[in-house]
Structure formats: structure tokens, C-alpha cells
Amino acid sequence: MSTTQVTRSTFDDVMVPNYNPSAIVPVRGEGSRVWDQEGREYVDFAGGIAVTSLGHCHPAMVKALTEQGNKLWHLSNVMTNEPALRLAAKLVEATFADKVFFANSGGEANEAAFKLARKYAYDNFGPEKNEIIAFTNSFHGRTLFTVSVGGQPKYRVGFEPVPAGINHVPYGDLEALKAAISDKTCAVVMEPIQGEGGILPATVEFAKAVRELCDANNALLVFDEVQTGMGRTGALFDYMNLGVTPDILSSAKSLGGGFPIGAMLATDKVAASLNFGSHGSTYGGNALACAVAEAVLDEINRPSVLEGVKHKHQLFREGLEAINAKYHVFKTIRGKGLLIGAEVSEKYVADFKRFVTAGAEEGVMLLTASTNTLRFAPSLVIPDEDISEGLARFEKAVAKVVEELGK
Ligand SMILES: *Cc1c(COP(=O)(O)O)cnc(C)c1O
Known about the structure:
Low-confidence stretches: none
Mean pLDDT: 97
Strand order of the largest sheet: 4-12-11-10-7-5-6
Bound molecules: pyridoxal-5'-phosphate
Structural class: alpha/beta
CATH class of the largest domain: Alpha Beta
Number of domains: 2
Shape: globular
Strand content: 15-25%
Number of helices: 14
CATH architecture of the largest domain: 3-Layer(aba) Sandwich
CATH superfamily of the largest domain: Type I PLP-dependent aspartate aminotransferase-like (Major domain)
């Protein structure tokens, strides 16, 4: 095998088969356009799974990365560094949180969140108060603790035994939560919008009721905002839209805009339990990652960008509805800001991944969520022209699928 010429088939030769990547191998990106090895161009509606929040190679991020890259990359948590301190200060300034812990991914931010929830209850109420309640169909990452809290059994099968003390109740089912919560509950964990689960938003009433139940039972409310976070819903975090404040919040994905970083945010009172020596990460707070995330936060956390997300949501919604009026392929179109799900109608469910491959053939990168939903999670600053061009390509893909499947 030649190492100078790598192609999609190299993946099968040298990489663990836990993914089945697309036939396309992208080599370059700029804004919301991406080019593959053959020089074919795509409009990116996938955003690296809700990650590339400012598109590809945004000048502010390239500047932050190269400037920091010429200064200092990494120390250790024996020493702190300026980018980490600045980013933490800005996150504290912009949110409910008083304290920040940096990790390298969403799963790690959640791992820290769940450990802190247990530790806080242990410190303040004793070891009996250790149960975590989460929701069916939720997704919180792929570490053993996070697949256990996650509400999709398929991610746990074969990896048991998993950590104990975790219960799942149906998302949105207040009565089930009332029945499950008790003085043994240390935390309720929820995504304000279930992302991987199919772009399923919680209602304001449900989120408020969960907060009240947590308070009544001395349980912490943990919001996993790894996917909804950092501007994607038109607010910096979705808890701001809901008007419900968690005790702990996890962020990753769009926080780094494509550079690996995760963050756990907490109030002072709760954060105190992650005391000296209780948790850690070699790379957490890495200077390069924090410098990039600081640039991302500076860009996103301004009214023009957040308002722009709401405006772009409308463009997507109108475009998708127009396509649906012509081809009748979607059952519902839902979501907030630039996290949009289009659930395909019954007759397309079996072949719904064909929409994604047809999209690639027509030059638009698409994502799925759950087993029946197309997911749109583009850059938060995707130009309006790229939205209309991408939707025009998507319409061609839809027409192709409809014709092929003879419906
Ligand atoms: C993607 C995601 C995670 C996991 O993040 P990783 O960076 O892949 O570990 C956790 N929670 C939610 C809601 C996510 O969407």
C-alpha cells in the first residue's frame, strides 16, 4: 500500500471499522463550501455534525490558531495559561455559570458533569443520593458512563456491565419523571433539544417542570448543550430561550468550531465539589484549543450573528416547505435556529439514507438523525446565497430519490 496516495479504500485497510464514511474524501473547505479529492465542490449543510459553527477556515479562527501556534501550545494543568483563563472568564460572563472545567470533547464534558453531580450529592447529602435520571432516546457521548446515561440501548449492548444507579424515563413525560424522582436522585440530565435522537425539542413547560421537580428533590439539573450550544438555536445556549437555568451545563461541538474542546459550566456552589485532585484531563484547557474557542465565542456571541441564525432558520424552513409542497417527502419539519430536522414520510423511511447519498451526488452535504430524519446543522454564518444554492441542489436530490423509488 502506498502512503502517498490515500483514498476512501485506505480507510478499510487501516482503520477500525466503527465508521462507514462516505465515498467522498474532502481536502479543503472555505466558509460553507468544501472540495473533495476530485475537485468536486459541495455546499456544507452538515457542519461536521453541528461543529463547524463558523464554517471552514474562518479568518478569525485561523488567526487565533496561528498566533497561538507561534506562541505556546501546551503546558499542563500544573500551570494555567492565558487563553484558558480568558475563555473561562468570557463563558462565565456570558452565562449563568461561575466556574468552568475544560475537557476535549462533549463526552468528556458530560463525564465531568455526571461525576460532579454524584460528588456534589455525596458531599452534601451522603452516598445514598447517587441516582441519575435521564431520558430515553437521549445521546450524551460514547464513554461508558455517557452511553449509560444516554437513552439509546444500542450504544450499550456488548459493553456491559455499565455503571449502576441510572434510570431512564420517556422524554417529555412529566408523570413518569414525577414517579421516578426521589430524594435518592442526584441529578436529572437532559438535552433541551434531543439532537442525535431526531431533533426533538423540549417544550418550555416541560423544561420548567423538570427544574421545579429537581428543586423539590434537591437534585441538580444538568443540561447537555453539546449540540444545542454556542449559538445554534439563535441564543448562545438554548437554556436562555427556555428561560430555565441548569446547575451544570456541558458544551463542545460548536464551541471549538472544529478544534477539539469541551467545557463543563457550573455554579460556584456545585463546582466546589470538584475539589483539588478530584478530576482532571491532560489536554483539558490546552492553549491552542482555548485560543480558537475564544475566537469562536467572540464571533458568535453578538446580536447580529444570533439574529442571523433566526433569519437563516426561516430561509431553511421556507425552502424545505416549498420542496415538500412539490414532492411530499416530509412528515414534519422541526427544530430551532440552525438545528433543523426534516422527518421523512413513512414510505421513505426504509431508504431515507438515499437522500444523503443523492445530496452528495448533487453537491450538497447532508446529515441524518435517528432513523428517519434529515438533519441540517450548517455554519451559523452560512451566506444566504449558499442556503439557496444548497437547497436548489437538495431539491434535485429529492427529485432524483422520488423518481428512483417510483413514488
Ligand atoms: C455530540 C454529542 C455528544 C458527544 O460529544 P463528543 O464530542 O462526540 O464526545 C454529547 N451530547 C450531545 C447532545 C451531543 O450531540
